[in-house]
Amino acid sequence: MNIYSFMELILPYFYLIAGIGLIGVALGLFRFGQRKNIVYARLHILGVMDVVCILVIIFLGNPVAILAALAHFFLMPFAVHSISWADLTEADDYV
Amino acid sequence: MSKAMRPFWGIVYFIGLVYYIIVSARDVFIQCINGKIDPQVMEIDTILNRPVSMTILANSITLTPGTLTIDIFPEKQKLLVAVISPRSQKDVIPFEGWIKKMVED
């Protein structure tokens, strides 16, 4: 068995696990109501979606898509910082 | 420690970062399923001095699901970090030592 047939064997299970993970965290996005710091919790949950989608794109094997996934990997923290900082400065209890 | 070892620690840091990202993604998935979340904001002390290394640490924290950096205070060597459930400082920044060896030593 060479590496390509091994990957073909493994990839469907990986996609299945990734899909279950995405559905699970998507439920997590909506099941928690309004509570303190819920914006940060939703950003954490979206971080899981980011990671799963980046892994799926990398395993798809398209070089251009891999570049896009890596760009997303390195730029995603800046967007999350911006959203969380905006929420912190807008919060009523921030001094 | 010589600067020649920096690429080695960079590789160690990247492998460790990918490991902690996958483990944290699994943990957050489990917390989403069982509903045991308690999002909090905490201040983290860091041993890093240079702004660039603190930025790398902040990005690493944010890339790891379950923790995200809100703000950096380079003069106080502190980070303002939001966590999805209470945890110790060591659990929030396990890769701090690798970043120090990669950038500052």
Automatic annotation (TrEMBL), chain A:
Listed name of the protein:
Hydrogenase subunit EhbC
Keywords for the protein's UniProt record, in alphabetical order: Membrane, Transmembrane, Transmembrane helix
TM region(s), chain numbering: 12-30, 51-75
Superkingdom, natural source: Archaea
Automatic annotation (TrEMBL), chain B:
Top-level taxon of the source organism: Archaea
Q: Where does this protein reside within or beyond the cell?
A: Cell membrane
Q: A cellular component term (GO) from this record?
A: plasma membrane
> What's the main place this protein lives?
membrane
Topology with respect to the bilayer: Multi-pass membrane protein
Which of UniProt's keywords are assigned here?
Answer: Cell membrane, Membrane, Transmembrane, Transmembrane helix
InterPro entries of this UniProt entry? Cation_antiport_E
Transmembrane region(s): 7-25
Q: Which residues form a coiled coil?
A: none
What GO molecular function terms would the record report?
monoatomic cation transmembrane transporter activity
This protein is called Hydrogenase subunit EhbA
**Originating species:** Candidatus Methanofastidiosum methylothiophilum
